[in-house]
């Protein structure tokens, strides 16, 4: 059972007796099966550790062979780390609660918008604001160029879904024609069979994009090209010659953009172009059904797309017990061995989707070849400090799941580091672990020490494990420089996770007053200062050239036209990467990195170091500005309040039913207006905290919220009609999904930091238990021998009682 930690020890004790009551009907075998599965977790001893037996078998028999690390060494090392660091992990969480309690008490005594001076004094005296760090620069070494030198898109994908994660790994290259044809970037009907006229229009858009990135000499355009040829020169260098419909020829305006080719007769089979460190491949085949329609025989335009991909064990995954976690760990292991594959049906045929190999061309610069990776550089996001698991127990105590994650993540990556993989991930010998939901520099220092301990136990060189810092909690934003100082030898990115950051903004100042309308939160002063301060810190502290400055997710996967219009602004602001929700989005977003030289943007910022330094204090003031409703919301109309409540409730239910009911951690969820949005726990945190805040301050009342949630349940049920495995909320309003939703809302004020993981995980386990009882019922019926009387025997039943609150609010 893997879950978030609860602050109160008394509360944790209550949970064990209130989580569920299970009674099983007649049938000894059925009762025994359920009891064994739900009342006992088979465990194997490993020193002082008790480990789920299937997890131990996975580590011993699958993870470690080939690494040179014996199972006894692994488990003894993990035990040593846990004995030392688990109590300190708990102390850091207690410190979070202590600071939150001080803030809550202060806001109750000083409601509304605080006096800036008094508020800053509170944050300083409490230790919420850390002392300034001595002068330093980021000094990470051996960081792969996809993170340190070349700007490009970054995918985020749940690692517990093998099909998704293989697609993410292979998203290094994507078809521009498919991305244009299959999305709203090209208006018109895209459903059904291939439409030649739409295909021609997609080529028209692609030609325009090529004109922008790889302009031709004179007045020639890519739409004029009828053939691509390569002319060899003395010394082995080559030049690209383009035949035009007019009968003339043209060349690239910048000949250096011609990087490589694959020779063919009479024209090149492939032409590789480059700009700003990224590449585009023009594939030529006049016999292909698409190439036959193009004047130059171009069958596809392949764009180097996702340079890196985060394999997520956290917000977009759903891993609530050891069995789930083994799936996630196993997929990460498969990626690090280069052997993860997924059987699929395509075009009526069974195919095996595997991780792509590298791509090689003849070099245009002279003798030799050009080889580029066929896969994104893979990073792994572990869980945060607040997550605890009983899949591994230290004595009778659950242990921090993030510590187990670090050991397993690093051990799996040793296959890549030692050359045991079919393909190479890191060419510099590093392992990239993204660490979420850290609160302040003490937690950053704790993580850096944890990585050192893991390296020592596994025999890895110091600083092999690199850390990506998610700047998604308010205390980290206000202390980002100190956080970077604590991780300076390992840091490979800082990323503004604005969704979780919004949820924390609400929870941190829960007692101050009612928050703005949800849609207005991004327009408040805290948000612009948050995004600007993150980039400024990265530039000022010399992260550029050693790691990434990242920006958040595009959450509307079906609105690619708007993404193409808007997402380039993140690069103009100084970001070297930004998150995208799909391989298609990565291909389209890659075009922004052709249009904008991030290197030039960041170089210009570095040249204005004095200006950057001068705005740090105003940024801090902006970050401390709480986004409260003017006049406590009294100026809002009833319609505006209800509309926001409807939107929050519908989005919350739409996500919870899939997470709890189906074990889906991240998916496209239709909003109140049936617009498909990419939802994960971060968006759920916002919705639940926003309702809880308004409820607490009387903007809405309990009866209104319950009526709204029930009405939105009907909307969500309709939106999921026909979805395989879907469990309707109405009319019973009594399933685990329903109880989870109500808990997130009505106990949201008391949930530590507003995190949703503990509630979701607990109720997901209830749903899994209920599903197992259904399986046992079928088994019971079969064991009955098929007699009619036997089949009428009552089925096992699960009775659910609501869980206690996570903690009393101070």
Note the topology.
Elements: E1 2-4, H1 9-18, E2 21-23, H2 28-39, E3 43-46, E4 49-52, H3 53-63, H4 71-109, H5 116-126, H6 145-148, E5 154-158, H7 162-169, E6 173-175, H8 176-181, H9 196-213, E7 225-232, E8 238-244, E9 249-250, E10 258-262, E11 270-275, E12 278-284, E13 298-304, E14 308-312, H10 322-337, E15 341-346, E16 349-354, E17 359-363, E18 369-372, E19 377-381, E20 387-394, E21 397-400, H11 401-417, E22 431-435, H12 441-458, E23 465-470, H13 474-478, H14 480-486, E24 491-495, H15 498-508, H16 525-540, E25 548-551, H17 560-566, H18 569-572, E26 577-580, H19 583-595, H20 598-607, H21 609-614, H22 616-623, H23 638-662, E27 667-670, E28 676-679, H24 681-696, H25 702-719, H26 736-746, H27 757-783, H28 788-791, E29 797-799
Parallel strand pairs: 5-14, 5-26, 14-19, 19-22, 22-23, 23-24, 24-25, 25-26
Antiparallel strand pairs: 1-20, 2-29, 3-4, 4-20, 6-13, 7-8, 8-9, 10-11, 10-17, 11-12, 12-13, 15-16, 17-18, 20-21, 27-28
Strand order of the largest sheet: 5-14-19-22-23-24-25-26
Note the quaternary state here.
single chain
The share of residues in helices is: 40-55%
- Which percent band covers the strand fraction? 15-25%
Described by strand count, sense and barrel closure, the largest sheet is: 8 strands, parallel, barrel
* Global shape: globular
Count of helix runs = 28
Number of strands: 29
- Coarse structural class: alpha/beta
> pLDDT under 50 segments (min length 5)?
1-40, 787-810
Evaluate the radius of gyration.
28 Å
Report the mean per-residue pLDDT as an integer: 91
């Amino acid at each position: 059972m893997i879950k978030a930690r609860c602050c109160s020890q008394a509360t944790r004790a209550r949970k064990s007796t209130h989580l569920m009551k299970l009674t099983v009907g007649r049938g000894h075998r059925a009762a025994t099966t359920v009891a064994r599965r739900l009342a006992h977790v088979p465990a194997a001893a490993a020193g002082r550790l008790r480990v789920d037996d299937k997890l131990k078998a996975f580590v011993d028999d699958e993870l470690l062979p080939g690494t040179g690390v014996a199972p006894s060494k692994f488990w003894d090392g993990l035990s040593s780390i846990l004995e030392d660091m688990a109590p300190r992990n708990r102390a850091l969480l207690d410190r979070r609660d202590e600071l939150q309690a001080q803030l809550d008490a202060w806001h109750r005594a000083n409601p509304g918008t605080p006096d800036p001076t008094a508020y800053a004094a509170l944050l300083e005296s409490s230790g919420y604001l850390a002392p300034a760090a001595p002068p330093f620069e980021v000094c990470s070494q051996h960081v792969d160029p996809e993170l340190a030198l070349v700007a490009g898109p970054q995918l985020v994908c749940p690692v517990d879904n093998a099909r998704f994660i293989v697609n993410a790994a292979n998203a290094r290259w994507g078809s521009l024609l498919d991305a244009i044809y299959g999305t709203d970037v090209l208006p018109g009907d895209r459903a059904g069979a291939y439409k030649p006229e739409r295909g021609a229009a997609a080529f028209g858009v692609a030609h325009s994009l090529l004109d922008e990135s790889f302009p031709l000499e004179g007045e020639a355009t890519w739409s004029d090209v009828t053939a691509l040829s390569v002319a060899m020169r003395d010394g082995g260098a080559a030049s690209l010659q383009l035949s035009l419909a007019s009968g003339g020829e043209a060349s690239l305006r910048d000949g250096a953009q011609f990087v490589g080719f694959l020779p063919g007769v009479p024209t090149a089979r492939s032409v590789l172009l480059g700009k700003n460190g990224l590449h585009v491949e023009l594939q030529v085949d006049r016999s292909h059904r698409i190439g036959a329609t193009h004047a130059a025989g171009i069958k596809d335009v392949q764009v180097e797309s996702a340079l890196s991909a985060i394999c997520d064990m956290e917000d977009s995954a759903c891993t609530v017990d050891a069995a789930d976690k083994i799936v996630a760990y196993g997929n990460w292991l498969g990626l690090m061995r280069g052997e993860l594959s997924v059987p699929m049906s395509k075009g009526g045929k069974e195919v095996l989707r595997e991780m792509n190999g590298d791509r090689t061309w003849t070099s245009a610069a002279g003798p030799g070849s050009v080889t580029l990776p066929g896969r994104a550089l893979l990073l792994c996001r572990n869980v945060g400090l607040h997550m605890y698991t009983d899949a591994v127990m230290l004595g009778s105590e659950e242990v921090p799941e993030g510590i187990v994650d670090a050991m397993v993540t690093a051990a799996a990556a040793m296959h890549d580091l030692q050359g045991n993989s079919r393909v190479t991930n890191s060419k510099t010998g590093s392992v990239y672990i993204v660490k979420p939901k850290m609160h302040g520099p003490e937690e950053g220092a704790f993580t850096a020490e944890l990585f050192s301990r893991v390296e020592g136990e596994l025999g890895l060189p110091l600083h092999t494990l690199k850390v990506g810092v998610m700047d998604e909690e308010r205390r980290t934003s206000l202390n980002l420089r100190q956080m970077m100082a604590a991780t300076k030898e390992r840091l490979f990115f800082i990323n503004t996770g604005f969704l979780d950051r919004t949820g924390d903004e609400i929870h941190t100042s829960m007692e101050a007053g009612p928050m703005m309308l949800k849609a207005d939160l991004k327009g408040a002063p805290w948000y612009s200062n948050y995004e600007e301060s993150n980039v400024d810190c990265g530039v000022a502290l010399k992260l550029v050239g050693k790691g990434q400055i990242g920006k958040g997710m595009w959450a509307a996967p079906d609105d690619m036209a708007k993404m193409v219009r808007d997402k380039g602004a993140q690069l103009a602001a100084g970001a070297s990467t930004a998150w995208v929700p799909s391989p298609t989005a990565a291909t389209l977003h890659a075009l922004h990195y052709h249009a904008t030289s991030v290197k030039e943007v960041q170089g210009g910022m570095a040249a204005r170091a004095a200006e950057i330094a001068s705005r740090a204090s105003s940024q801090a003031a902006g970050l401390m500005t709480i986004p409260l409703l003017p006049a406590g919301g009294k100026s809002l109309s009833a319609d505006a309040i209800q509309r926001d409540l409807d939107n929050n409730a519908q989005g919350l239910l739409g996500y919870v039913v899939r997470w709890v009911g189906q074990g889906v951690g991240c998916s496209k969820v239709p909003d109140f207006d049936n617009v498909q949005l990419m939802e994960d726990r971060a968006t759920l945190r916002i919705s639940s905290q926003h309702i809880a805040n308004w409820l607490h301050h009387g903007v809405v009342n309990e009866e209104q919220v319950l009526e709204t949630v029930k009405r939105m349940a009907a909307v969500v049920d309709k939106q999921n009609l026909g979805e395989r495995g879907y469990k309707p909320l109405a009319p019973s309003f009594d399933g685990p999904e329903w109880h989870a939703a109500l808990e997130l809302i009505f106990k949201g004020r008391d949930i530590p930091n507003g995190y949703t993981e503990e509630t979701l995980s607990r109720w997901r386990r209830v749903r899994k238990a209920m599903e197992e009882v259904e399986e046992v019922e079928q088994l019971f019926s079969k064991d009955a021998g098929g007699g009619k009387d036997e089949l009428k025997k009552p089925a096992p039943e699960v009775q659910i009682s609501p869980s206690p609150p996570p903690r009393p609010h101070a």
